[in-house]
Amino acid sequence: MLYLLRMVLVGLNFLLVGVLGLLVGLARPFNPDNNRIFARMYSYPALRILGLKLHAEVGPLLDHPPGCVIIANHQSNWDVFLLGAVVPPRMACIGKQSLKWVPLFGQLFWLGGNVLLNRENAYQARRSLQTTSRMLAEQNTSIWIFPEGTRNPGDTLLAFKKGAFQMAIEAGVPIVPLCVSRYSGRLNFNRWYSGELRVRSLPPIPTKGLTSKDIPELMHRCREQMQHCIDSLSSDNLQNSPAPVRS
User: Can you give the residue ranges of the Phospholipid/glycerol acyltransferase domain (predicted)?
Assistant: First the structure.
């Protein structure tokens, strides 16, 4: 019963944020700080509704000035509600072109100045990546990317795609890894206290002086650091869980 009530309330929050967010977005379209506002509107009420406790250690992310590539693990569509509380100022995302058809959310994504990527068209995909490189280098804006390229609820990170690393090197900006504890099957929304979520940003990794030849080593380095951090965060979650979580 509690689970159903929560899903209804989260759905209503999604619709309310969509309407209010459209008003904000239309008043200041493509403002680079719109995404932070939208993310907070989604996340703060949702965390309370879902009974989730968020432990965020994101000083390296929030203290770093805009103009970096943020890479994070992507577990499910719940990320939009769970991670919104740590979105930094002046941040844009790269998302699939199909997102624009999602009612309300797609329009907010567009008004937030985010980049819609058509992966089936190589030419348009390259143009989109060039646009994000200019945003990084010229507009004092950070780019948030899920380097796995898809949702992954598993314990092991998938192989990273090179787009995020190529953009960072071309723009000469650092990469800031953001790690989220595994939550698939570990949260119970039918309990008043449904569980914990741990988020930690790692120190920025500089890319100045690197070239395309350095991309494989850079990808491997970032993936290894993130995997180790995610394993540690997830282990802490299990140790601090007040009771077994029903999957």
Answer: 68-183
